């Protein structure tokens, strides 16, 4: 079974031998691949829609994993019982959707040992939310699969340091480990700031707003981090 680099990177953050809950499973590629590699003991594959659940059942049947994967239709974490899964993976959704799923069933989320999350957008807000709601960042990864660039975040229960806005935007663990794609990540975040400032700069009212000042401050912080990285590479 072949999976793309995004899913394989997510899979590599899932602990060996765990029970995995894959929320928004779609075709159940992640849990089936992990089972085929004997990396997890069993899985719950959940999705809110009937179509993806049927696609998941087809994949499970194709690879003969029906005894090890339970496909369940339902909203978010409501397909689980507390403590049923050691690791919860939520991938391919916006950060706001991931946050809503976790907030809607905090007891279930907190009962897992690890969250592995891959937001399609808004990773900074997801990091900030996790760190202010009793999780600490356990691992971070980047995947450059042109034209897509993915951020993957693993979090476990515990108190987190007070990260700056720039650290949340880039990824504090990516910064600490000097990830090979850190330069591209910094440039992406800076480009986003420049675009926002350019758009807001057309309005006098927007230029006078607190939001404009916050983005200017973030841009300045990111430039410091970028210059620091350039110095390190010399």
Automatic annotation (TrEMBL):
Taxonomic superkingdom: Bacteria
MF terms in GO: tRNA (adenine(22)-N1)-methyltransferase activity
Name of the molecule in the record: SAM-dependent methyltransferase
A Pfam family matched in the record: TrmK
